[in-house]
Amino acid sequence: MVYLKNFYFTSGLAEDMFLNSIRRTCYDSFYPFQILPQKGIDEIGFKDITILYGGNGSGKSTMLNIIAEKIGADRMAPYNRSNFYEDYLEHCDLDYANAQMEEKLIITSDDIFDYMLDIRRLNEGIDNKREERFEEYMDYKYSSYQLKSIDDIEELRKHNAAKSKTQSQYIRKTLIDNVREYSNGESAFRYFTRKIKENGIYILDEPENSLSPEMQLELVNFLEQSVRGFRCQFIIATHSPFILSIRDALVYDLDKNPAGPNDWHLLKNVQEYYKFFMDRREEFEAIGEQL
């Protein structure tokens, strides 16, 4: 579902006029000015899934943050706004094909990292509780208990549970908030599935981080289904060949000069993967014969 149709970044001429109007010279950086004009790209159009590809320093994360800020997307983690961010945004413009989206959200690698740290801290608390539950189980298992009042009903339940269950069953039952069921990659994937809902624009900055190739393919499938079934639009910055290969995605190559659309299989990063596997083609074919 295309909500955002076009985005117009500050042109090189507008940048020059603004920077020439600044009389103070105490600034070391005018970020995000002076980043995108060298890419030769003033505007981009969007499809259901639009992908920004490029090496470090190519400007893809800068473009995502500018778009997210201009459309008013929600975000969790802070980012580098600089003194001139609002000035830059004033020179940007956009076109909506449909402005009836229910959510606008940007998800970054920092969001995923913070989420996994929260899970780790929660698990550490659970580990402490687990030791307490071990002792509790032994006390209840081998002691008798007589109900004295209705207020003691919970204690009686614990005694009965300890009598009827194994130690591991008792621990799992009483620690119902135990989240140590998922790997980091699975937790990262679940973060996307929980945050992405119906009728929204979602801006994803390198979503492949923390995801194995298998989980990246799961994410690709989820994103494609979200477009078809949940009327979502995605704008993504990535290096991953798995995500770059999303069907019908519009891919912008920011390493080109000037930057512009390109077929995903012609991108430098993807070609490096291709060369790596082709150089070892005989080894893979030998494995195939054994299977």
UniProtKB/TrEMBL annotation:
Pfam families from the entry?
AAA_15
InterPro entries with a match to the protein in the record: AAA+_ATPase (IPR003593), AAA_GajA/Old/RecF-like (IPR041685), Bact_Antivir_Def_Nuclease (IPR051396), P-loop_NTPase (IPR027417)
What is the protein name given in its UniProt record? AAA family ATPase
Q: Which SUPFAM superfamilies match?
A: P-loop containing nucleoside triphosphate hydrolases
Question: Which ranges carry the AAA+ ATPase domain?
Answer: 46-257
Q: Which organism is it from?
A: Pseudobutyrivibrio xylanivorans
Q: Which CDD domains match?
A: ABC_ATPase (cd00267)
